Structures are given as structure tokens and as C-alpha cells.
Amino acid sequence: MIIIQNYINGQFQNPLNDEWLDNYNPSNGEVYGRIPNSTGEDVDVAFKAARTAFPNWSEKNIEERSRILIKISELLEAKVAHFAEAESKDNGKPINLAKAVDIPRAASNFRFFGNAITQFASESHENVGQQALNYTLRQPIGVVGCISPWNLPLYLFTWKIAPALAAGNCVVAKPSEITPLTAYLLGEICNEAGLPKGVLNIVHGLGTITGQAIVEHPNIKAISFTGGTATGAHIARTAAPLFKKLSLELGGKNPNIIFADCDYEDMLTTTVRSSFANQGQICLCGSRIFVENSIYEKFKRDFVAKVQQLIVGHPSNTSTNIGALVSKSHLEKVVGYIDQAKVENHTILCGGKKVTVKNYENGYYLEPTVIEVKSNECSLNQEEIFGPVVTIMPFHSEKEVLEMANSVKYGLSATLWTNNLKRTMRICNQLQTGIVWVNTWMLRDLRTPFGGMKDSGVGREGGFEALRFFTESKNICIKY
Ligand code: NAD
Fold it and tell me: Could you confirm whether 283 is annotated as catalytic?
């Protein structure tokens, strides 16, 4: 049994009320740990530690802050195997994925923002006629709140914490209660790296209690949130009267648009990955596949054949392609969409059933599922499923596919497969998404703005956008 504790003021602590929540291992459905069921009192203790640490941290030499963040990155890199094992056990994702992507990316987040802060420049404007100089300071906000989801636990947790710390803020952070383990392990690394106590505080617990307390705290002045759209709307309503700065990274229903003139084999292999990586539980997965009519039947055959080769298995097995879904309730939600497809007479081309993995019969496994839908209006094409389920349907014209791609409430990302440059330019200009990948998927560069339009969020993360979010600008005008 792993006992996870809060990390406050550089120390591991039990919740003040001594109440705990069970933590499940999705690969076998067993409880393997417990986490604090923290309340507003714990959040306030964390806030006070952060507030005390703020003057020293914010006034530290930028090189010194940068050095500590890069040290955290190095220590994480040295422990990739250990962290990957923990992440895989906590989340159900294949160990290979955690080792190759999640943990290295968490390390990159610290390295990237440790370097980025040393290059973060502000503007100045001289008005010679009026003999005045304007210059803009970018000052840290103070104590900020970071709240993250379960799908890419350490990857997204650190994507917020690293820029917040780099910019000179102190942080009260809450990982998802469903996947708290690697955030817990991060505390030790921060101490080892010499992060001063109180600069980062990690409070575990339920969104509706611990998360809500962070959002409601009158002196936590900015909230960076990644999670579901409904939660984001609730947070926005709570934070608005308190005039907090908000960054919201929310759900998606991303189109994957395939034209006949694309590099077919590359598209096919990447589309299997963009549909089912991390059991389809990535906000950027292409969950609606639109295929040009002339290659539709061929694509359908080839895609289904490749998907049927994916191995559903225990996350720690290195041959596993599809691990366990994160929780029993999430598995049931995803299965609900498959049931809905049957009721609405869509065609399940492959998958659709729960999988029993030998020796792990109570794990949350589901076959990768491809559903041919009748129209883009159905709930399967409009609502975020967030599991190993994709829909496919043909299109006949650029106009038609653009309309379908844009006619959802979400606007996070899109993928486009074509070798026609003019068409690429036209479609990229008109897609209502914050991110478009052309002839690739999830090729990330941490300098680029990241985030969604419409109900997929407000604001952008990544590069200097993140450093701007975590700072207040102050303009100074000097008459000389
Ligand atoms: P969720 O909204 O249920 O929870 C996210 C986090 O918010 C958790 O830590 C949770 O405890 C906390 N929370 C819940 N209620 C809260 C409240 N009232 N106040 C404060 N915090 C609260 O989301 P989830 O199920 O953990 O994650 C899946 C969702 O996240 C999907 O919709 C997915 O698309 C989205 N997501 C978006 C991005 C992106 O970058 N846009 C990335 C990953 C995941």
C-alpha cells in the first residue's frame, strides 16, 4: 500500500483532517494506495507556505531559478524508469509510452522553461517627440494555482508548474485524484534539486473540495487549469467575481481529414497512433476521421486491419499497445457510447467489447473500436468520448469536410493529410482549432502556442505565452 502525502513547505504531510481516498490500479482494479482527502484548510496552509517563500523566490537571480529548474529536469531524466513505472501503474498506460513520452516530456518541461525564462524579454517604446520612454515590466503574480487531469499526469502537471516557477511565482498545485503518484514523487526531486521550501506545494484531493478551495482562495490570483469543459465552465464562473487570471485547456473532438493525394502509408500508420495512443485518452487524439470518398473503402479495409493487430494487454508488458482505461467509471462511460452507436444503427467495424486480460480479470480493458457513423450530427461525432473509440465517414468535397470539421462546439486541434499546398493553406486558414497538424500528428515544439478555440479553452500555453500568463505586465512611462 502506497501512502501518498501532501507536499507543503518542502515536507510531506498528512491532511489535517486525517481523511483519505483510495487510489486504484486500473490494470487489475485493486486499491494500491491512499491519498489525502484534503480540504480548504490544507490549501490555506499550502498558500501560506507559498506566500512566505515568494519574496525570496521572485527576487532570486534568474540564472539561479533557471539552474534549479534544469536540475529538477536532470534528476527526472535520471529516474525515467522509476517514474514511468509509477505512471503506468497509476494510469494504466503502456510502460513503453510512459518511458518514451510522458516522463521525458515532464523533464523537458522543466528544462525548456528553465532556459526560456533567461530569454524572456519585455518591450520598450521611446516617443522622442514627447520626450518619453515607456518600458514594460513582466512581474510574477504571486501565488498561483495549477490543476491538472489524469490522462498525461506528470506531463501536464509540470507543463503548468515549470513556467509558473520559472516566472518567479510560488505554486499551490493539485494533480488529479485519479493519478496522484508521480506528482507525489516529484516532491522528493524538488527537494533534492534545492528548490527552496514553500515554492512548490502539492495538495492532493477531490476536485470538488481541494480543487474548488484553490479556485476560491481569495489570494491565489491566477489559475491554470487543464481538464473537462464542464469543469472549466464551473471554474470560470467561480473565478470571475474574484477577478483571477485564468488559463483553461479543455476538451476536444478533433477532426482527422484525409485526402486521396496524401502519403498513404504514412497517413495510415500515424492515424492508428493518433486514434489510439494512450487508449485514445489524449485531448489531441483525432476522434473523427473524415476520408475522401475515392479512397474511403480502401482506407476502411486497411485501417480496420491495422487496428485489429493492436495488442490490448497489461500496461507493464512491453508488447502492449493498448493498456487499461484510467478508471471503472470512465470505462463505463466509453462503453456507453458504443451502446449508443448500436441503438442509433451505426456500424461497428471492429472492437466494441471489453477485454479480459488473463490474471488481471478486473482491469479496465477495452478493444480499440472503429465505428462508421451515418452523419456528423450524431452524439458520437459531437461529444468527447476520450477513449479508444474513433468514428469514420466519407466526404465528397473540401467545402463539405470543412463544414463537418468545424460544426462541433470544440476547437482544440485538427489533422490534415494532403500533398496539395493550396488546399492545405485554404483549409488551415479556415479550421476553427488552435492547433493544426499537416501530414503528421502531435509533433510538438514547446516554443509554440498551445490551446483551443471555442469550448476547448481560453488562453494559450507553451513558450512565451505561458510566461506571459504567469506574469503581470506593468508599463512605466518616464518623461525625460
Ligand atoms: P476533470 O475536469 O474532471 O478534472 C481535471 C482536474 O480538475 C482534476 O484535478 C480534478 O480534480 C479537478 N477538478 C474537478 N472539479 C473541480 C472544481 N470544481 N474546482 C477545481 N478543480 C476541479 O477532467 P479529467 O477527467 O481529469 O480529464 C479529462 C479531460 O481533460 C478531458 O475532457 C480532456 O479533453 C481534457 N484535457 C484537455 C487537455 C488540453 O490541453 N486541452 C489536455 C488533457 C486533457
Answer: yes
- Grid cell listed for 40: 480548504
Distance of alpha carbon 53 from alpha carbon 94, whole angstroms: 38
Ligand 1: residue of 282, 283, 460 to mutate (most ligand atoms within 8 A of CB) is 283
Active-site residue (options: 190, 283, 384, 465): 283
Q: What is the pLDDT of residues 279-310, one digit of tens each?
A: 999 999 999 999 999 999 999 999 999 999 99
Q: Report the C-alpha gap between 179 and 330 in whole angstroms.
A: 13
Q: What is the pLDDT of residues 97-115, one digit of tens each?
A: 999 999 999 999 999 999 9
> Is 30 among the catalytic positions?
no
Q: What is the mean pLDDT of residues 432-447?
A: 98
Q: Which residues contact 47 (CB under 8 A, 6 or more apart)?
A: 143, 172, 201, 217, 219, 220
215 lines ligand 1 (CB under 6 A): yes
Q: Which atom of ligand 1 is nearest to the CA of 227?
A: 30
The residues that bridge with 290 in the sheet, in sequence order, are 257, 393
The reply to whether the predicted model has a pTM over 0.85 is yes
Give the number of the atom of ligand 1 that is nearest the alpha carbon of residue 461: 40
Give the integer Cα–Cα distance in Å for 55 and 335.
50
**How many Cβ atoms are within 10 Å of 448's Cβ, its own excluded?**
12
